[in-house]
Amino acid sequence: MPDVYHVIGAENSPYSIKVRSYFRYKQIPHHWLSRGQSQEEYQKHAKLPLVPLVVTPEDEGIQDSTPIIEAMEQRVPEPSIYPSDAIAAFVSALIEEWGDEWGNKWMFHYRWAREVDQIAASRRLVSEGAPGASDEEIDQRAAMVRERMVDRVWFVGSNETTAPQIEKSFTDTLPLLEAHLANRPYLFGARPALADFALWGQIYNARKDPTPESILADFPKVNAWLDRMVEPANEGEFESWETLAPTLTRILDEQIGGLFLPWDDANSAAATAGDETFSVELAGETWTQKPQRYHAKSLTELRRKYAEVQDNATLNGVLEQTGCLRWLTP
Ligand SMILES: N[C@@H](CCC(=O)N[C@@H](CS)C(=O)NCC(=O)O)C(=O)O
Predict the structure, then answer these.
(1) Of ligand 1's atoms, which has the minimum distance to the CA of residue 50?
(2) What is the mean pLDDT of residues 135-140?
(3) Cβ of 64 below 6 Å from ligand 1
């Protein structure tokens, strides 16, 4: 039985570092372990072959970064990662979902789309999994990983049709984030919220590859936030929605209401119907991919969270104005 929490994950896994950043912020005593360092424990507790896996001091396993963080918030409520302003709190949940599901498209697409990034990423993944391996071994194993992963980039919906749309979404989001982070250390004020952990994990991992790293170089505030979130600190209070709205509203409008939620809805419908592929119009462009089945569940969960606050007329006004509302009420 572990004496403290075990966070089993990988540096190159955005969901794993999301959870580690959370544990660090909350100052919850834990050991960060790779799957290789905890084989027996991992096999005992992992119901799905995924990281992160958290093993509690009571020897219970928890998987999936969002339920992990939600379970830990019950156990260690302070400092809370939920803004006290009800609108900000729901927008944080929405951005968390966007970060996990759409931000992952940026990260995964850039990792495997171009040769220069494929080479960097495959070497990095192999080096993490085999510390101490010789350069020659790394090269050989990296070539195999690269071949396998390039074939899998369609998992996140990256293909010839969608590649320019994924990249445009990334390059359109960065100036919006830069403006939003101009006067605040975290997305919702002076301390990190649920949204920060998720969005950060994806962009921080994307920055490890040459192409997104060079795109990010033009955004110093975003880079400072990426660095800050490695070990986030409580620097003060969350802001109210009024002060966040001027710059967050554009992200909600253009990226979340305009692209992510219509995609999520179409994906979910296709996954439920068992369709082979689906197409959806996103900001005037046709998006086509094979459905991502797991994501259907997370949209249901987001809708459940919305149902809890659906009587808040001001929140509904914000969601309506940014094109988000119709996707949250099936
Ligand atoms: N929804 C899950 C996603 C976890 C996930 O996709 N993990 C990836 C790494 S980022 C994984 O373990 N892939 C299989 C593998 O690495 O063997 C979460 O939020 O924890």
Answers:
(1) 12
(2) 94
(3) yes
